[in-house]
Structures are given as structure tokens and as C-alpha cells.
């Protein structure tokens, strides 16, 4: 299985809502990532988990809260978002960091709209 | 300065023609990768070239890397309508350790 799955595909939420994005991979990858991508722009790294521990937080506002319950799952909890947070949120995974550089496998993304 | 910053291009070509896009970066790299993204979907890894490699082929793809000029090019030969996508290069130079910096991307439209 060389697939990264993300749910939901689309999400519309109000600024007072709490929602979660989910990501799953079964490739045995120990590094997982969250990216944010605005239209016609490249992906921007948000968070990196390595061996289920948060290793990189790119100064992301606290209204985004990542969680890695186990090596296959990655969540992004959303609370009190702003309309400018509307974007495509991409999850990715790769082999162990520091063991040579490996390609990242991306999920199809969650299209988030904040009203 | 942004790593993996390719020339911002929008290419429109006829099916069967070749498409070439470029990527430049500013500091030393370990690897450079190219990814494809179809309209609003996830990215798909195309090819990785290591800093000690100069050229690499994969099917209809040809990637070159010139570390002296800090640049890379991606050539797609005999393009197909299905090649219509955005193409991003990404480097690990700035952050290292599996942390990618993506360039601005090139939009390629292949007209059937």
C-alpha cells in the first residue's frame, strides 16, 4: 500500500467551529508532515512529526493543533480559524529522517473553507 | 531567499511537443526533487536527483542538475494531455533532514 489517505476531502467550517483533519498511511513511514497550500502557490510546511514526536513547528498559530496518535495516523485539530486559513491542507509521509533523503508521499488533500 | 525557485512560467504546448522548465536555488543541496500536482490535488513525486548526479532519466522525464550554477531542469518529452499539471521542484538545502523547500511551480498545459 503506497497511499496516503486524507479525510475529509472537503470541509466548510465557521470561525467558531472545532474540526479535525485526518491522515493515514500504512507504508511504515516514520516521518509525517502537514502542509498548507494556497491557490497557485507552493506547499508551505506547517509541522513535521518524526517517530510520533513533533520535530518541527513552522511558527504555526495555535489555532492549528497537530497530533500523532501512532505511527500511521496524523491529525490536525482546527479551532477558531480565520477566513484566511482557507486552503488545501496536504499530509505527506516519508521514510525515517536522517537515514538518507527519501521522497515524500502526499495525500490528496483536504480543501478547507472557513466562513 | 527561497530555495528551489524555478522560473515562474506558464507553458502551453501542443501534444507531442517537449516541455522544459527550470529551477534555481541559492545554497548547497543534498538532493533536488520534482513533483507534479494535478489541479488542486496532492503532489506526486516524479524524480529525485542527488547533488553528485548530473542527469537522470525516468520514462519520458529527463532531469539535469548543475550544482555550479545551482540550477536544474525538467524535460518532458512527447507530452500528453495528461501531463497538464503544475510542476514543483523541491530542495532540502535550507532545512535538511527531510524538510523540503518548494519552488513556485510551473503550470504546464498540453493541448490535445
Report the uncertain regions of chain A.
none
Biggest interface, residues from each chain: A-B, 28 and 23 residues
Question: Rg of chain A from C-alpha positions?
Answer: 13 Å
Assembly type: heterodimer
What is the β-strand count of chain A?
11
How many runs of DSSP E, i.e. beta strands of chain B? Answer: 10
Class by helix and strand content of chain A?
mainly beta
How would you portray this structure in words?
Chain A is an all-beta fold and 115 residues long. Chain A has strands at residues 4-7, 10-13, 18-25, 31-37, 44-50, 53-57, 64-70, 73-79, 87-94, 105-106, 110-114. With 112 residues, chain B is mostly beta strands. Chain B is built from no helices and 10 strands. In chain B, strands 1, 3, 4, 8, 9 and 10 form a 6-stranded mixed sheet that branches. Chain B starts with 9 loop residues before the first strand and ends with a strand. Chains A and B meet through strand 5, strand 9 and strand 10 of A and strand 3, strand 4, strand 8 and strand 9 of B.
Structure summary:
By secondary structure, chain A is mainly β. Chain A has no helices and eleven strands. Chain B is mostly beta strands.
Question: Which characteristics define this entry?
Answer:
heterodimer, A: 115 residues, mainly beta, seven-stranded mixed sheet, four-stranded antiparallel sheet, 11 strands, B: 112 residues, six-stranded mixed sheet, 57% strand, globular
How would the blueprint of this fold be written?
The complex is a heterodimer of chains A (115) and B (112).
Chain A: E1 4-7, E2 10-13, E3 18-25, E4 31-37, E5 44-50, E6 53-57, E7 64-70, E8 73-79, E9 87-94, E10 105-106, E11 110-114
Parallel strand pairs in A: 2-11
Antiparallel strand pairs in A: 1-3, 3-8, 4-5, 4-9, 5-6, 7-8, 9-10, 9-11
Chain B: E1 10-14, E2 19-24, E3 31-37, E4 43-50, E5 55-58, E6 61-66, E7 71-76, E8 85-96, E9 99-102, E10 106-111
